[in-house]
Amino acid sequence: MTVAFLNLTWTTFADGLALGGVYALMAVGIGLVFGVLRLVNFAYGQLIMAGGFALAFGQQWNLPNWESILFCFGVVVALSVLMDRVVFRPLRTHSPAVMLVATFAIAFLLQSVALVAFGPLGKVAGQFAFLNAPVDIAGVEIKKIAVIAVATAAGCLIVLQLLLTRTSVGLHLRAASTDFRTARLLGVRANRVIAGAVIVSGLFAAVAAIMLSVQTTQITNTFGLQETIYVLAGVVLGGLNRPIPATLGGFSIGFAIGILGGVLPSNQAQYLPSFIFAAVIVVLLVRPNGLFTRGGGAVERV
Asked: What residue spans define the domains of the chain?
């Protein structure tokens, strides 16, 4: 392992930052929904999958890149709102366990629909593959997507912070994520807050779909699934009860995977998930409420 880390280069470091940025965006989407609904949305990966297929159809229809991006955002946000209206809203008064099982059911249903509709090989979304080309920065060859991913993640998180701190919707979101019951008693509109969280979560899922499609141009029914599992582990690692700890946890997992994936020999890369999840277990044994949280855990909804 020591020898492997001697192979760490600035390029690998940049790739780790880029993957950490994408995972941070996904963690924000998952963390926002959990903060408001106390719901761990295992179907989040299927939102990313839908965004990937939207990009594939954009290429198939010869749409300009900007139109493909808009189509991706439209599909993902529409599916997010549909999931909330059809499944999550009727189940809000039920226990978190019921809602959790519902997200599993949605995830497998959407995967099966994609498999039947597009087959095991799926479709190709390669219109942004050119971003894998390297660019010279101060004598270091860094992929264009690494620079774009870091800049996009930083920009999105800044916009989100401004939304949460400078707007009434953001204020309501923060109040609801802290104590939903008290926030409602103080006049926070539940449906408005939940709709805002769902839409913002969908926007981040669309951004993640675009970023991931650069590296994986073959869009199948499992597109984004592995990344979502890693991010869910990162969100728990950081702390589910607050957006910022969840974001930091997602970034940490992504950065670690990017670095380890770059320095490990090819014959040891298959052990990468084992290293990551073993580290998550160790951290949670020491800090069960999350690595970046203070005090108690999340407030349960009843």
From this structure: 18-224
DSSP for 34-89 reads HHHH----TTHHHHHHHHHHHHHHHHHTT--HHHHHHHHHHHHHHHHHHHIIIIIT
What are the Cα distances from residue 34, in Å, to 42, 241, 250, 295? 11, 8, 14, 18
Residues 6+ apart with CB under 8 A from 278: none
| pLDDT score at 299 | 43
Tell me what pLDDT residue 3 has: 45
d(CA 255, CA 249): 10
Nearest residue to 53 via CA among 106, 105, 123, 102: 123
Using DSSP's 3-state secondary structure scheme, residue 15 falls into helix
pLDDT value of residue 74: 97
What amino acid is encoded at 196 in this protein? G
**Would the pTM of this model clear 0.85, i.e. be above it?**
yes
| 42 pLDDT more than 50 | yes
